[in-house]
Design a protein that fits this description.
Oligomer: single chain
Strand content: 5-15%
Number of helices: 11
Number of domains: 1
Helix content: 55-70%
Number of strands: 5
Shape: globular
Strand order of the largest sheet: 2-3-1-4-5
CATH superfamily: P-loop containing nucleotide triphosphate hydrolases
C-alpha cells in the first residue's frame, strides 16, 4: 500500500474506532450533492440499471458522476495483480478494497458532492461489508474500515437468487476465483463455489438492508420495470417532477420492453 494512502486509510480507521456507535457520518456541511448507491450480487443486473439511471439523469440535464468499486488508479492495478496471483487472504482483501474506496472517496466522491453533483456509486461500502463478513471477518472490525464514510441518500439493493445471478454471469463468461468465493469454499468448481458463497453475501446484505433502510429492487423483473421503479423512487425522494411521455422515455420503453438483463 502506498505510504501516503496507508496513513490516510489508518486515519479513517482511527476516527471510526473513536465513534463505533455510528456507522456513517451525516451529510457533509455545505454538501449540496446527492449520493446514490447501487448494491447487489454480481449478476444481479445493478450495473445495467446504473447505466440506464445515469443516462436518464443526464437527459434531465443533471450533473452526474459515477464511481465504481475497486477502480482507484492507485489501487486497482495492485488489487488486480494480487487477484490474478491468488495472493489475497481475507484481511488483505478487505484492507486493499477499503484503501481503494477511501482514495476514491477523497478524490471523487467528496469533491463531487461539494460541487452539488449527483454521485452514483456502482457499489459502495456495503459491498466491502457484505463480502468481508462472508469471508469470515468480524462485522465490527469490517465496519471500522468504512465507519467514517458519508451515508448515502438512497441505496438501491438488487435482490435476485444466487442461481439467477450465476446463470447470468455464465451466459457471457466464467465466474472468477474471488467472485465465486473459491478462496473461502476451497472448491474447484467456480459455479458450485458461487452457489455456496453467494448466500453468505446475501445474508449480510439482508442484515444491512434492515439496519440501513435499503430500497429493494426485484432484480428478477424485466429491465424496464426495474428502471421505472428506480426513477419513481428517485423522484419521490427528491420531490422532483418531469414531463410525461417525453420522446426519449417512449423510445426507451419500447426498446427495453424487449430486453432482459
Amino acid at each position: 500500500m502506498p505510504e501516503t494512502l496507508s496513513i490516510t486509510f489508518m486515519a479513517h480507521v482511527a476516527r471510526s474506532e473513536a465513534s463505533k456507535t455510528l456507522m456513517f457520518g451525516k451529510s457533509m456541511e455545505g454538501d449540496r450533492g446527492l449520493l446514490i448507491a447501487f448494491e447487489g450480487l454480481d449478476g444481479s443486473g445493478k450495473t445495467t440499471q446504473r447505466k440506464l439511471f445515469k443516462s436518464w439523469l443526464r437527459s434531465l440535464h443533471r450533473e452526474v458522476v459515477v464511481t465504481k468499486w475497486s477502480s482507484s488508479p492507485l489501487f486497482k492495478p495492485l488489487i488486480k495483480a494480487k487477484k490474478a496471483a491468488r495472493e489475497l487472504d481475507a484481511v488483505t482483501y478487505a484492507t486493499l478494497h477499503a484503501s481503494d474506496f477511501w482514495h476514491r472517496y477523497e478524490t471523487v466522491i467528496e469533491p463531487s458532492l461539494d460541487a452539488g453533483k449527483i454521485v452514483i456509486a456502482d457499489r459502495y461500502v456495503f459491498t466491502g461489508l457484505a463480502r468481508d463478513v462472508a469471508r469470515g471477518m468480524g462485522r465490527d472490525w469490517t465496519m471500522e474500515l468504512y465507519g467514517d464514510a458519508r451515508r448515502p441518500d438512497l441505496v438501491f439493493y438488487f435482490r435476485a437468487s444466487a442461481e439467477t445471478c450465476a446463470a447470468r454471469i455464465m451466459s457471457t463468461r466464467q465466474i472468477k476465483f474471488y467472485e465465486s468465493g473459491q478462496d473461502v469454499t476451497g472448491l474447484d468448481d467456480p459455479n458450485g463455489s458461487y452457489l455456496q458463497f453467494a448466500p453468505r453475501v446475501v445474508a449480510e446484505y439482508e442484515y444491512l438492508r434492515d439496519r440501513f433502510g435499503f430500497v429493494v429492487v426485484d432484480a428478477e423483473l424485466p429491465v424496464y420495470a426495474q428502471h421505472r421503479f428506480i426513477r419513481d423512487t428517485y423522484l419521490k425522494h427528491t420531490d422532483e417532477t418531469v414531463p410525461a411521455n417525453r420522446p426519449v422515455d417512449t423510445a426507451l420503453h419500447a426498446f427495453l420492453s424487449r430486453v432482459d438483463v
